[in-house]
Design brief:
By secondary structure, the protein is mainly alpha-helical. The chain has 3 domains: 3-133, MgtE N-terminal fold (Alpha Horseshoe), CATH 1.25.60; 145-252, Roll (CBS-domain), CATH 3.10.580.10; 276-449, Orthogonal Bundle (Tetracycline Repressor, domain 2). It is 68% helix and 6% strand. The strands form 2 sheets. The chain has a 3-stranded mixed β-sheet with strand order 1-2-3. Strands 4-5-6 form a 3-stranded mixed β-sheet. The protein starts with a helix and ends with a helix.
């Protein structure tokens, strides 16, 4: 749908809701995607939101709720009566229901589950027993499995019976009499096989699976590494669920958002709708800490007050030296954090990365150092000042690049999320380093600068 078409449908829906024209609203609802309805929902007034919820049938409402942000999901579920909410949650993916209910108090969870079908409620309760952000919380029980004794014909017939129930039909998973995962067969291979062949004879016995306790970030990496569209979840060898690629994509988005928040030192999630006071209180702890660390920079300058008073021109280049060092450190930090997310790291990879970044720092440092040395000489007419500024920048850019590389690697080694080595922290530390180097070199050449 193009943007002009989307805007046109949006205006038609708004007009129908305002004028309470149910049939016109439902015509628009049938023409647009649940994702679009979810986006428009937050822009509607309270009255129009309630009318939209009334006009949506159970299946369409379930699809829309799955596209909403968690705060809006909670709001919508609470607006529905128990029976209505139960029917809708029966149609939603079990893991999405579990994510919503996790945010609610126990009594409200019990009340909502009482409105669901007993079999669906049982599955959701089971999902809630798994730790958050694990494979167990991502998995669904809506998939097709057969025993290894089944025939191809029986499997295809089962697929026809459960096609509306299953989240994916790309693969059928095979278990033995003990419900242990023993193989997998693709829809393509089923079509090519003869109906009377046994599944055990045509299935692929090499099955990639994860434990229910596996961290969700590791699950997402497996999808990326092996180009999967679904991933079975086991406890021991027993097949207990399936994770689909859309859930893995959601995990990658969540993890990326978390890393961005940590890199910017903003802590918990802050978006366009976050209240000013909440946003400020989430940012302040880090900023206050960095404020006190930043005072170290002031104390360094005070230690070299005599040098600065004798050669005032040194002050002209202070912001540039500190800023360039912080910038190159932040660039290296971003490269390392992104690499740690997307690939496995061992001693060989770390060594190669550090050597590579050392060379990068050297190239950047020499290039920028020579350039600023020439500028300082032409501007101030003092070759020694140019030497001090240029050599300082070379050294600080090399160390700044290495700091942005090594600090997150050390944190990763200590099993601490490397994204907490945030941009502001690296920048502040590099500011301190750059001032020490700059004024140290200037003090060594003070007699020639005067």
């Amino acid at each position: 749908m193009s943007q002009p078409e989307e805007q046109q449908w949006k205006l038609l829906l708004l007009e129908a809701l305002v004028k309470e024209r149910r049939e016109e609203a439902q015509q628009v609802i049938e023409e647009v995607y649940p994702y679009d309805l979810a986006n428009w929902y937050g822009e509607l007034g309270k009255t129009e939101q309630e009318r939209l919820l009334r006009y949506l049938d159970h299946e369409r409402l379930a699809d829309v709720i799955e596209e909403l942000e968690i705060d809006e999901q909670l709001e919508v579920i609470r607006r529905l009566d128990v029976d209505h909410a139960g029917h809708v949650m029966d149609l939603m993916e079990n893991d999405d229901v579990a994510d919503i209910l996790e945010e609610l108090p126990d009594d409200e969870v019990d009340r909502l589950l009482s409105g669901m079908r007993p079999d669906e409620a049982l599955v959701v309760r089971n999902l809630l027993t798994y730790p958050a952000e694990t494979a167990g919380r991502l998995m669904t029980n809506r998939f097709i499995w057969v025993t290894d004794e089944s025939t191809v014909g029986e499997t295809i017939e089962k697929m026809r019976d459960y096609i509306e129930y299953s989240e994916t039909i790309n693969y059928v998973y095979v278990v033995n009499q003990l419900s242990q995962l023993v193989g997998v067969i693709s829809y393509r291979d089923l079509i090519l096989a003869s109906n009377d062949e046994r599944i055990a004879d045509v299935m692929d016995r090499k099955v990639i699976s994860v434990s229910s306790e596996t961290d969700q970030e590791d699950v997402a990496k497996m999808f990326e590494r092996y180009d999967l569209v679904s991933l079975p979840v086991v406890e021991g060898d027993v097949l207990v669920g399936l994770i689909t690629v859309d859930d893995a994509l959601d995990v990658l988005r969540e993890e990326a958002n978390e890393d961005i928040e940590k890199l910017s030192a903003s802590g918990k999630s802050i978006d366009f709708d976050t209240k000013p006071w909440v946003a400020a209180t989430r940012r302040l702890p880090w900023l206050i800490l960095l404020l006190f660390i930043g005072l170290v920079s002031g104390s360094i300058i005070s230690q070299f007050e005599e040098t600065l008073s004798k050669v005032v021109a040194l002050a002209f280049f202070m912001p540039m030296i500190a800023g360039m060092t912080g910038n190159t450190g932040t660039q290296s930090l971003a490269v390392v954090v992104r690499g740690l997310i997307t690939r496995e790291v061992d001693k060989r990879v770390v060594t190669r990365l550090i050597i590579r970044e050392l060379r990068v720092g050297l190239i950047i440092g020499v290039t920028c150092g020579i350039l600023i040395a020439i500028i300082a000489y032409v501007w101030q007419g003092d070759p020694i000042l140019g030497l001090v500024v240029g050599s300082s920048l070379i050294i600080t850019l090399i160390f700044g690049t290495l700091a942005g590389t090594i600090i997150p690697l050390i944190l990763h080694r200590l099993n601490i999320d490397p994204a907490i080595a945030s941009g502001p922290l690296i920048t502040t530390l590099n500011d301190i380093l750059s001032l020490l180097v700059y004024f140290g070199i200037a003090t060594a050449f003070i007699s020639r600068l005067m």
